[in-house]
């Protein structure tokens, strides 16, 4: 229940709430690699390292934690760089195959997939479309859990290469779907099936283990030590010459360490996508006294059916609370911020009955500061 709740919390931009509802603890385990601290490993920004590793690869697989969209941020940032390197297909988990017009339309709708309803997931697919990737739906969820789903997904990905031998593919998938060896749900992972049938060794980037959890005791001990040592504000990876560090050496090629997110009532800074998006403040006046209030921003050149570029929820309160509590209870003033790329947007405020209280058009300047 907590996991399902967390997904829907991410859909409305409540990332702190999602983390509190569901988080997979990452304790130290016997198959962990040795710590990268004090043993010849050097911290590096991920982009250059991943590009170097990917330059001769035909497939790059990124994983994500569905309840922690911070694990989608680096993938979005890497898409333009990998496109420039020649990658031309993008596949994402739970995209629906019945949205046959996705590539022609150029933007995702809620009918394009399940996780697509989370704004950063939508931005990931939207970015791929704008860059000229052919976006494909590979996931076969109704195949069943375990091997049937993993095998069916791998077959869909392999079909890309059967149709286009020159294809270069990026895949976004959850958790251990991309592990290269070992048991997964009692069988094999999608990545392992894919490599066996295609002969292609995918570059597998692990992004779900070295992250901040809702409770500090759920963080991996290495993560705590790395954060204490580096005080980083951006993701890092570790290299030693041509070697790359991963927490699970036989399962992945590289582990990404994401910085912690200090508690901030105005939403986490990682939503800026490393400076690609800027903060746009919103306040309770846009809600005309109707709380709770969902504020959405959509690209002005996309339809009303588009997945929002960003969402935030103002002043979540108990039903029946009086006006003073609506403004003051646990939330201070009703304010937040959206994170948006430079461009034109339609911003709407919806009340709890999904009625539009306010709608306005705004332009986010390229010179705006986060």
Question: How is the topology of this model organized?
Answer:
Elements: H1 2-11, H2 15-21, E1 42-44, H3 46-54, E2 59-64, H4 70-84, E3 89-92, H5 102-105, H6 119-130, E4 134-137, H7 147-163, E5 169-174, H8 190-198, E6 203-206, H9 221-230, E7 237-240, E8 243-244, E9 254-255, E10 278-283, E11 293-299, E12 310-314, H10 323-328, E13 335-340, E14 343-350, E15 356-364
Parallel strand pairs: 2-5, 2-6, 3-4, 3-5, 6-9
Antiparallel strand pairs: 1-7, 7-8, 10-13, 11-12, 11-14, 14-15
Helix pairs in contact: 1-2, 3-4, 4-6, 7-8
Concise overview:
The protein is 27% helix and 21% strand. The chain has 370 residues and is of the alpha/beta class.
Tell me what the structure shows:
The two termini are 35 Å apart. Helix content is 27%, strand content 21%. The chain is an alpha/beta fold and 370 residues long. The strands form 4 sheets. The protein has a 6-stranded parallel β-sheet, with helices on both faces. It is built from 10 helices and 15 strands.
